[in-house]
Amino acid sequence: MSAGVTRIGLLGCGTVGGAVVRALSRNGDTIARASGHRLEMGPILVRDVSRPRPGVDPSLLTDDPARVLDDPGVAMVVEVMGGLDPALDYLRRALEAGKPVVTANKQLLSREGPRLLEIAERSGTELRFEASACAAIPVIKVLRESLLAAEIQAVTGIVNGTTNYMLTEMARAGLSYDDALAQAQELGYAEPDPTEDVNGADAAAKMAILASIAFHARVPFDAVPYEGIDTLTAEDVGLAAELGFVVKLLGIARLVNGSVTVRVHPTLVPEGHRLAAVSGADNAVLLESDTAGEIMLLGPGAGGPETASAIVADILSILGTHRGSFLHNALADAGRPVLPPAEVTSAFYLRLSVADRPGVLANVASIFGEEQLSIRTVVQKGEGDGARLVLVLHPGVEGRLLSAVGRVAALAEVRDRPVVLRVLGSGDDG
Ligand SMILES: NC(=O)c1ccc[n+]([C@@H]2O[C@H](COP(=O)([O-])OP(=O)(O)OC[C@H]3O[C@@H](n4cnc5c(N)ncnc54)[C@H](OP(=O)(O)O)[C@@H]3O)[C@@H](O)[C@H]2O)c1
Fold first, then answer.
1. Superfamily covering domain 341-423
2. Which of 70, 190, 358, 410 could crosslink 184 through cysteines, CB 3.0-4.6 Å?
3. Is the C-alpha dihedral spanning 404, 406, 409, 411 positive or negative?
4. Which atom belonging to ligand 1 lies closest to the Cα atom of 303?
């Protein structure tokens, strides 16, 4: 099958837009195999065309929105400029012209979503917005496709990474609100102007979008009362911990007797609750439904490449994967070999029962050394007239480990068959 060419016009090329350009260029072959469409980038609307942008062809940049919106050669528009004005006007124009639109703009979607969706419907085109809530986490797709028939009863989310990072540090290191905010800004988790993060408005916009999808309702931003963490003190976080709670900025959306309620506020979450364990800048959404039980989605809720991943997914959903489906089409074969199990790298735990004689550990260690495996930890425990030897090895190649274990098992001092378990950790791929 030869891929047809689809041109993508981009509105904005900042943190997210730049990552979209790079992701589309990196994944061009995969997208073509999956969808039957080869994507072509440009034109790209920015304010400052003279600023260099890594991985972006400067000849595609323009400061004239008509080049993106009125070019009949542009088949799809991706909006990553943010804000309400002029984004609303641009999206309206694109949709009215029958072009599918993908956006990451939560402010716009939570206020004008229904109006834009109506235009899309009237024009026989699509508006997709996975990246507008929780970036890389595919929560909107799960709600609108995978759980369509599950009758969602509640959506409870940590949907703002900045405040979750701050609350984690206030609890863990006893940081004051101001110090936690300064640290979040230093690490790039908070915008230079973090007002909408800390006052809860960002989370309220995302919850309005999620509740609308989950409950098949129209929940505008204005219908979501919100409180932020800007009045919270380290003292309250500490006292809550003494009482067995973790303070989280939660978005809570519920179906109560057929009505929808959505709100955002700092909430004391019992320590054992699965949302209490969500730390740092991560986002998590707990979906409760009648028929599918509880499902929790967790992952990065911000960042250029993370948000771009959701945008690429939306582009693929619009193009459709049926023509070149990964599972059903030979073209989906990217020609990747399958690694033989013996070549997989992993860290290992080993338990040996040995006779308590001098030099046993040295013999074992020298076998591992010869097989290029290094020992991270050794614990030796007396066991009657023998000893129990527990070793944790640094990541090594499985084939060498098996060969080493065979040689160790054959040592006269080793009594039983060694027990081998794999250890999950950095540096392994097993
Ligand atoms: N950053 C994240 O982690 C994240 C996560 C989820 C969702 N989002 C959403 O993604 C969108 C983009 O965020 P971002 O962080 O990529 O923003 P950004 O870095 O500030 O980039 C905005 C881009 O839009 C362009 N732009 C803005 N206003 C314009 C105008 N009036 N005319 C022409 N170009 C204009 C800017 O041009 P110049 O480059 O010339 O200034 C810039 O390229 C926002 O809706 C945001 O809420 C972001």
1. ACT domain (3.30.70.260)
2. 190
3. negative
4. 3
Selected from 1.10.8.60, 3.40.50.720, 3.30.160.20, 3.20.20.70, the CATH number assigned to the domain covering 4-133+322-332 reads 3.40.50.720
Q: What is the Å distance from ligand 1's center to 106 Cα?
A: 12
Q: Residue 124 pLDDT more than 90? A: yes
Tell me which of 13, 45, 56, 80 to substitute to probe ligand 1's pocket, judged by most ligand atoms within 8 Å of the beta carbon: 80
User: What span, in angstroms and rounded, lies between the C-alpha atoms of 314 and 156?
Assistant: 23
Average pLDDT over residues 396-401: 95
**Binding site membership of 159 for ligand 1 (Cβ less than 6 Å):** no
Find the mean pLDDT for residues 90-114: 97
Domain with CATH 3.40.50.720 in the chain: 4-133+322-332
Residue type, 44: I
Q: Which of 21, 45, 46 to mutate to test the pocket of ligand 1 (most atoms within 8 A of CB)?
A: 46
pLDDT over 70 at 45, yes or no: yes
Angle at 421 between CA 416 and CA 424, to 5 degrees: 160
CB neighbourhood size of 50 (10 A)? 8
How much is the pLDDT for 1?
Answer: 40
Site of tokens 């308590």: 356
Ligand 1 binding pocket includes 302 (Cβ within 6 Å):
yes
